[in-house]
Amino acid sequence: MNHLKNYHCIEMETKQGKVLIEGPVPPNRLVQYTLHEDLTSFRPPKQQKKALVEIAELEEGRIIIIRNGDLIVGYVTYLYPDPLERWSEDKIDNMIELGGIEVAPLYRAKGIGKKLLEVSFMGDEMEDYLVITTEYYWHWDLKGTGLNVWEYRKMMERLMSSVGFEPFATDDPEITCHPANCLMARIGKRVNEDTLERFDRLRFKKRYMY
């Protein structure tokens, strides 16, 4: 599959000043920026920046960022599913995963997360993809937001649905181990039946074991 990466950019006013929401950003530009010190949901900022650069270097990898000058204050990542997860057991060329989304607390307002996703799907090439996201409550900033797991889950569903993601049932143990966890997916307009059938087999492995 030819993974096109058409660049898009919008400006947005925040209490911290004007920011750019842009991407996919190539690795040679990402290395020039600093990651905000409060972007710690997945790993320490320096390690996370290294991970973002590595994802951007992948053929399918896409990094969309929120940038205040040379400071990255938010990002979302897209790449093939983690080799350790069931979603990679069938190598579906046009199925990628929203691997992580994070916005620094000082910038969380006025729908900036929605804008980050909006820029992600501005390119027509995204209609060729089935994009999945696995939401696990242990990655959520419950303390910083003051929300409980159910309020946060509803917030994430509203955020993801703004660009066409829908919840999908699954028997994946990591999802089913807690009722707040969920699998969501956005099915591009040009995704064919073969991709959907293979996705169904990944969602319900127990069904195909008999």
UniProtKB/TrEMBL annotation:
Residues 19-189 form the N-acetyltransferase domain. One of its GO terms (biological process) is acetoin catabolic process. InterPro entries: AcuA, Acyl_CoA_acyltransferase, GNAT_dom. One of its GO terms (molecular function) is acetoin dehydrogenase (NAD+) activity. Coiled coil: none annotated. This is Acetoin utilization protein AcuA.
